[in-house]
Amino acid sequence: MKKTPNPVLSLGLLALLALNFAPPAAWAQTPDAALSAPALKPVYNEQADARAELNQALSAANAQHKNVLVVFGANWCGDCRALDRKMGEGRLAGHVAKRLVVLKVDVGRFNRNTDLAAQMGVPLKKGIPAVAVLKSDGEVLRATSGGELADARNMGDEAVLRVLEGLHGKP
Predict the structure, then answer these.
(1) What is the rounded distance in angstroms from the CA atom of residue 146 to the CA atom of residue 157?
(2) This prediction's pTM
(3) Of the candidates 113, 101, 100, which has an alpha carbon nearest to the alpha carbon of residue 74?
(4) Domain encompassing residue 126
(5) 102 near 69, Cβ under 8 Å?
(6) What is the predicted pLDDT for the residue at 108?
(7) Which portions of the chain are predicted below pLDDT 50?
(8) Calpha distance 101→120 (Å, rounded)
(9) CA distances (Å), origin 27, targets 13, 36, 47, 161
(10) How many structural domains comprise the chain?
(11) Residue 130 belongs to a domain with what CATH number?
(12) Any alpha helices (H) in 88-168, and if so which ranges?
C-alpha cells in the first residue's frame, strides 16, 4: 500500500528548512546594492602622526588662548562616533569651539598611540572614548580616569558637558 504524504506536515517541514537555511538579509542583497551602501566617514585619521598633530594643536591652542582636548578613540567604536557627533552640534559644539582645540587620536585596536595616552595619564583599558585636556604649553590639566565617556552613545549632551567641564573648568 502506497502512503500519501501529509500536506500539512510537508509544508511545516519546508518552512523550518527555509528558516534554517535562509541567508541573512545582507547576503540577499545584490552586489550592486551592497556596493552602493554608504560607508561611514572615518572620525579618526588612522594614518596620522599623533605627536605631530599634537604639536599643531598645541600651537593653535596657544594662538587662540584655548586648551587642547585630546580625544582617544577609534573608527570602529560606536561611542567614539557618538561623542564626535555630539561635540559637533548644539550647545555642546558651542562649548567645545569656544574653549578647546580638539585633537582626535586613533588607538586602532588598542595597538596605536597607547604610549601617548599613557603619557597623558589616560587609562584606555577603562574604555574609549577617553580624553585629556592640556594647556597650550602641553601640561596635562586633567584626563578621564574611569571610562567617563565610554558610554557616550547613551549620554545626553548635558552629561557629556559635565564631564568636559570637570576636566577644564567652566568659563
Answers:
(1) 19
(2) 0.76
(3) 113
(4) 50-168
(5) yes
(6) 97
(7) 8-37, 171
(8) 16
(9) 23, 14, 31, 41
(10) 1
(11) 3.40.30.10
(12) 90-99, 114-119, 157-168
